[in-house]
Amino acid sequence: MSNSKGELHRIYWQQWVSSSERKSRRELITSSAGIRISHSGAKAKDVTQLLRDTLKIGSSQVSQLDSGDHLVLVGTLYSLPRDYVQFEHEQERRLSHSFETQQNSNSTATTASSPSVSTYPKSDPYHVVKTLDPEDDPLEVKRQMEAKLKQLQREAPVSRTIISPKLQWFFIPSSNEKESLIPNCVELDGYCSSLEEEDDDGCSTNSDSNDFDDDEEERISSGTDDGSSTENDVNDRQFSYAQSLCSLSCSRTDDIVTKRFPWLDDNATEHTSRNDAQVNLDPAFAHRVNKQRKRRQMLHKQQDATVKAQAYAGYLYKQSHKDSNVWRKCFCVITDDYLWYISRIYSTSNGTDKLSYSKYGRIRLTHALLLEPSPDYAPLFRTPFAFELVTGNGTSHVFRASGKALQTKWIQTLSSRIIQSYENSFLDNAELIMADETLVRTQRMESLATDPFWKAIVSSNDPVSVDEHITRMRGHLGAVLRWGMHVSVFKERCRQIQRSLPAKSPVVVTTLSPESSSRHSSFASHPIGPVDPFVAALIESAWTRAAELLARAIHVATQLQSRLPHSIEVQCRHIDYMIHGRFRTNSAEDASRSSLGDYQRSSGTDKDEKSASDRNNVHRDAPPIDLFDQLLTDLQLLAAKVAVAKRVKSDVDQVSSTEDNGLNGIG
Hints:
Helix 13 (about 475-500) packs antiparallel against helix 19 and helix 16 packs antiparallel against helix 19. The chain starts with a strand and ends with a helix. The protein has 3 domains: about 1-100 and about 120-195, no CATH class; about 210-430, PH-domain like, CATH 2.30.29; about 430-505 and about 530-650, no CATH class. The protein has about 675 residues and is α+β, with helices and mostly antiparallel strands. It is built from 19 helices and 14 strands. The strands form 2 sheets. Strands 1, 2, 3, 4, 5, 6 and 7 form a 7-stranded mixed β-sheet that branches. A 7-stranded antiparallel β-sheet has the order 11-10-9-8-14-13-12. The protein has helices at about 45-55, 90-105, 140-155, 215-225, 230-245, 255-260, 270-280, 285-305, 380, 405-430, 430-460, 465-470, 475-500, 515-520, 535-560, 565-580, 590, 605-615, 630-665; strands at about 1-5, 5-15, 30-35, 70-75, 125-130, 165-170, 190-195, 310-320, 325-335, 340-350, 355-365, 370, 385-390, 395-400. This is PH domain-containing protein. Pfam families: PH. InterPro entries: PH-like_dom_sf, PH_domain.
């Protein structure tokens, strides 16, 4: 209705039925109000403000992340054929069923019948959605929508019964309105698309489906090209065959495809070059189609590699990044580490040929965050059966399911798969982790066994002894150096055991309240938890290795100096007590006479034997990591002093020998 005062339009809004339980608001009713829109100066923000005042919602508080109230125009077509919106997996099943039907019809002879008029089966409603900006002119957008619907009717084959397109206005309050009974989207039966994007949406470089790892895609594509040429040819033929069938009737598919694309036939290889020359595609469009083909191959490879019990697929509605009120239906597939979403089939005419393709996008589940609807997050809570995936780089993807049961199933499956993907991601970084760990271990070994030893020798101003004993790994200095490296390996084993042991007591965080601070925690007195048998075996082997290292240290020390310094002897007795739980009655020198492989303990008193027996029968903690640190430092200093003394003695002997030879020559 139009006159000089403006056009009268009816604005609709969907509303949840009021309930005492907020989480049960999932039944919608539709209400409307009539508004006259002026031809001059009327803006979308004026309409939304009038509706807000009419519904008594209150003032809108628009944040930086929220665009405020939305005025949405929905144009609906009811006369498009059913196969106008179709997906690849549906087409494959339909073609398989059509082929079986054709074989059955050819096997039975039928008499001539009266001609019948073939009609297109009607499809579900096809909606074109446009969300108006605050400064948009509603009447101008309405004219653009009418032109778009007429264009779709001209380009698409329609059924015999043509139903006129339908235009509807919808009002959606600000997404941050927590208490609003109006959902954050428009519930529509059928397929939704946007006003600006239709067929071009599938090949737009900035479309929603281009959330893809291009580097990995190129790497996989290069690997595919370097593979077997026979396998590539088969994949290309299968893709070209499947894509060509999208625009053809099932009854005439084989004949038309073979006639138009003879190179698809294995026996018609001689026509390949001639038909390739006839296909003249736009380079940019050909590049986009080829990229979607490679993504399709990647999806099939990942599906084949995924365990069938863990695979999950189904339809979801994905929110557009450009228009938040456009929810496109897509077919989603969960593989090992990705959530793939596949658009419907788009068709593009190229002269006499008609190419068809689908968009493929994927979301990496590693380091992804899954958000469920919550009253604290109004935009997601006001969207029925929605959930949100946030990738590791911060990109958000919002999906809607068709029901509560499907929403729960998708959330549970994605949650478990995200955890599994995160655990599997450590395998990708295994080489980096091992390299870092090896570097840290080498640095610890150098700081423990090599650097102090080098500083001790350099400080003695005897560089010749370094060349003779360290670089050649001969003599007593080399023995001390090797023993220090064994100690470093022993310390790494102790670190592994410490990481494997259960905590002695949990960490308790106390509050500042006087009641909690006055109470003593009962956790502090809890003993260590049960030790795994494997860890217990590691502990026992570590103590055995400690005894061997002590015996080797005493052997090296006695080789350096027959009578050990008091500090080294005290260290040896202390370590022996830590290992066996008793003090020796004999000296460390006598202990060094025993075999290094079988370190025998000398006999002692009954009290000592009983103490040692009790210590072996009870549970022992892991050896201290710094058990041999002080002993190693003392041995390094002793070795440096002995080396200097030997060097000085050698120089004195050499000078004396030279003088004697000179005197003999004179005589």
